[in-house]
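Person: At home tonight, work slowly through the protein below, taking as long as you need, and write a paragraph about the fold.
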Amino acid sequence: MGPKRMPGDVWVERKGKVVKVMRCPTEEESINYDTTRRNVISVMNRIHREVIDPQKYLEQARHRDHADLMLLAYPDNLSSYDENMEVELKMENCVSIETLVKNVGQILKGKFLLGRTITPSSKLVGVDAGVEDPEGKRAMRLGLFNYSVNAKMGKSDFEAVLPLGTMLIVKNPVFKKPCDGPASYGLIVDNPADVEILSPRRIESLFPGVQWKSDLPHESRMQLNSLLWEFSPDQSDLEIATKLKNVGNKAFVENRSTDAIRFYDVALEYLSDLEEQITPAVSTLLVDILSNKAAALIKLDCFNSALICTGKALGINNGHVKAIYRHAKALIGLGRYSEGGEFLDEKLTQFSSLGDDILRLRTILPELLKPPGKEIICALLNPRQKDSNLPQKDLPVGMVDRIAEFRGPIQLKKSKICKGEGLFATQDLEPGTVLLVCKPFAGLYVNPEEKKTFLDSTTPNEYLVGVMANKIWLDPQLGRDLYALFAGPELKTSTDNEDPKMRKVDIARIRQICSFNFTGSSCSKEENEKFISCGVWIPASKINHNCIDANVMYVHHDSSLVMMVITFRKVKKGEEILMSYVDAMQPLERRDFMKSHDFICKCRLCELDRSESPALIAKRDQLVKSLAYDPDTNLYPFHPLILGRDMVTIDKVEILRAASPDMNFAMTCSGIYTIAAVVLLDQRRYVECLSILEKVYAVIENVPTNFMHRAHAETILICCMRMGKKKAVLEKWTEELRKYCRLYAGTLEHVRLGDYPRIPEDLKKFGITFFTDTD
């Protein structure tokens, strides 16, 4: 890596016999380059032509000067909302590109830029296009982040994302570099609520007399076969609205619901003046657009806003089948199951034939009123294939619609272990009690085939921030639930539901909430898992952490993203529900990541770990590493002398925490387990085998089952059977194995996938039936 270049620096580069004198442009020179109309048009049109394969384009980009790309990276600092950012759309609040350039890096709060796209749009990181103001003298690159989060180059029609010639308003504009380093200047927008597409009709209404003093560039027009955002004078309002509806439908089919909603909204503007003298054609189109907008909102889980749309549609045509279906779906999404059933019953009485989808929806409603049944629990828990990095099997077709949000016997109260609130049991709970079933506020699943492509263009956190921001923009009531989550030590948790800020998009807070409440794995190219499955689940985020005394486990299904929280030990009434955010078997330095969260875990294990001297910790690590077991090959080079030496080592490891054997996590290492469960068991040294395994089990029974992928109880049970232990002992370990199977996989049949699939048959020899009537 070479020296950091400063504006104005001069240096020499040699390539073979060619010598070049290079100079780092000053800030003023960079700004002039990045706002010269000709440069913006040329660069953006080239990007649009070439970015069909983003990976290939980015590889080529490494050999280009950043100025040739005008590359806008994801912003380092996201904007925080305050009251001064409310914008009144009056011309005295309108600013020009010239004003933005004179105020580099400053958010012009309460102001807006009236702009028009003068190049086709594309997407490298954010959605990009060249934009001008009505004067047309200068232009700049517009970078929209958290906008059209599902748009993909080569797959999406970008004329249906941000069309050439689109007139728009950018509220609270800021012209800046999005990050430090060699990046271009641009109009950076990270809040989707700050962008508003305007139809020519609305432009005339808001800003009468405004004229664009330049034409759309011929070079840009040549990139496209036809212009979507061009309306001829002889087109009627009905024709324009129909055209925009079709563009919205295309976006919806391409899984770009936010784009669809923007186009539906513009289409509705053209029908607003026709509602007073409504004709059958206008009525049909209006209901279709409202119903389709509701479908897009439902896809984003914005059920409150969807209900408003379907209510308007049914007010015009109370028998519109799709509006009826989507109205019921919105009620169900809000957890108003009884109301949804009554609504459908009323419609089914009014109209004899509403279609199979509505009948099917009505039949599943009674199931949504009940706690999750065994079929659903087993499907959600269904483990991944053994020794595989592939995701779980998809849920059966239609099952996700039968899964309701569920909350068991718990309540929210002041926590006993942290400054905020926590969940508490309202009755005594047995192991295996389902406490929560919930879907993510924002979730992401990327299958193995698409993981690399996804990570080339964004990160899971950036994607989730975009989803959350768009949801609050489209359904402001959702902000009350999200903003109540912990957002880091520097931001006070929002709890006042009457505070207007709870209904506004605050990107900086959303980013913090995502960072501190994120659950998932495989979010980098280097991780072993071949897919991405992650999200933010609001109900589960209310549960506080404890490494060693957790009483619940949490699991989410990989592709459906449905999460369950289940007790894995007995919980007394009034006891706080606790989960372990990290694997307790990891060393303290890896568990202690929550210091940055303003939370220091003071559980028994962490306090014990902190009390130990560095010398003692080093001694234990050295003892574990001295075992002959090779963790890379999972092999143990058996020899009587080696085994004898390792048995002495195991005794030493045990002695180091003799006063707290249930927290001696060194005993759970793979080397000790392999020596006991494989070597000693095979040599029929059952007494020593059982002694070690029982000590291991005393530790791991404190660990939530979702962190364990090995049924320790089955090996102990095998050892006990071979020793001819009494029936009472065998029944004890049989029940422990049953408990593991139920918690880990939801079914006792999981025993067939273990190392000893014939355990049920072997137990019959001792008069014990493994499969019980209750299972």
Summary: Residues 711 and 754 are 7 Å apart (CA to CA). Residues 280-299 form the longest helix (20 residues). The longest strand covers residues 10-15.
